[in-house]
Amino acid sequence: MIGRIIETPDCVAEGAAYLAARDPRLAAALGQTGPLPLRLRKDGFEALLGAIVSQQVSVASAAAIWARLKAARLTGPRKVLRASEADLRACGLSGPKVRYAKALAAARIDYGALRHLPDEQVIATLVEVPGIGRWTAEVYAMFSLGRADVFAPGDLALQEAARLLFDLETRPSERAFRAMAEDWAPWRAVAARLLWAYYRVAKDREGIR
């Protein structure tokens, strides 16, 4: 069964209001962050290839690599499959990322069908592809498919935001954080948006970049 789909800023605002009514600490965080971003992006092969490109590199480096792939017309599955390793490396992809990009292209995922699968089936389908872990699959479900009740408890920024907001001694483990986030259903993806926004506010306040 597929739950709510986030499509507009009004959907995000509805989720934020729900969360703020449930927990005064979330309400306080929302008061500091202001309205939360929609952050929707297109789904499909390019979205996941972009996620692979972005792994373990800076935002600037990822943007530069992506620009070179676009210029070389190597952002579609058929072009990636046909490209040589040298072609992809010339755009800035490492050896492992070349393998991941080709594995994604060879997987022939039915991206249209993903839109109609339950959240866990979406994630299970994506993590079968080498180079796509659960975090990447969860982020894809949240922002490319608009799933309202998906969370990414393995995200370090979310963990640190929770530590600060809920005055925890340490960052919650992924398992503990997943359990903690159950209280935010059916708007866990909005809770993620709120915690990411709060993380930026908190770090700016501390003078940390």
Structure write-up:
The protein has 209 residues and is mainly alpha-helical. It folds into 2 domains: 9-36 and 149-205, Endonuclease Iii, domain 2, CATH 1.10.1670.40; 45-143, Endonuclease III, domain 1 (Orthogonal Bundle). It is 63% helix and 0% strand. It has 13 helices and no strands. It has helices at 9-22, 24-33, 45-54, 59-71, 77-82, 85-90, 95-107, 111-114, 119-127, 134-143, 156-165, 174-181, 188-205. Helix 2 (24-33) crosses helix 13 and helix 3 (45-54) packs antiparallel against helix 7 (95-107).
Features:
Endonuclease III, domain 1, single chain, Endonuclease Iii, domain 2, about 210 residues, 2 domains, mainly alpha
Global morphology: globular
Q: Report Rg.
A: 18 Å
Count of individual beta strands: 0
CATH superfamily of the largest domain: Hypothetical protein, domain 2
- In the CATH scheme, the class of the largest domain would be Mainly Alpha
The third-level CATH topology of the largest domain is Endonuclease III, domain 1
Give a summary of the structure in a few sentences:
With 209 residues, the chain is mainly α. It is built from 13 helices and no strands. The chain has two domains: 85 residues, Endonuclease Iii, domain 2 (Orthogonal Bundle); 99 residues, Endonuclease III, domain 1 (Orthogonal Bundle), CATH 1.10.340.30.
